[in-house]
Specification:
The chain is an alpha+beta fold. It is built from 4 helices and 4 strands; from the N terminus they run H-H-E-E-H-H-E-E. Helix 1 packs across helix 2.
């Protein structure tokens, strides 16, 4: 499972690294563990909406549960995001990673 946590963390870091001038720092193990706990509950990371600000970059996430049919999950994506059990943001700001819940 350690490798899986690193794969997910690296995917998030890669999606944030769109500009060579903006350095994205590695995630702490604590943040990786929080993300991994959410994965076990059915995590959806919305990579189609990455928000960039002057000193931060963030992506929203939703815990929507587990789906056997990914087409059903994708075709009802907005409804699933709205009905998510947990909603939040993964943020890189001032060389540090944070994870926030909205609810």
């Amino acid at each position: 499972m350690l490798v899986f946590k690193d794969i997910i963390a690296n995917k998030i870091i890669d999606s944030f690294s769109t500009n060579k001038r903006r350095k994205i720092y590695p995630m702490d193990e604590e943040i990786k563990n929080e993300i991994f706990q959410l994965i076990n509950k059915g995590l959806l990371i919305d990579f189609s909406n990455i928000y960039k600000y002057e000193r931060s970059i963030r992506v929203d996430y939703y815990v929507i549960g587990h789906y056997g049919d990914m087409y059903d999950m994708y075709n009802n994506l907005e409804r699933n995001k709205y009905k998510a059990k947990i909603k939040g943001t993964i943020e890189h700001k001032n060389k540090k990673w944070n994870i926030y819940n909205w609810d």
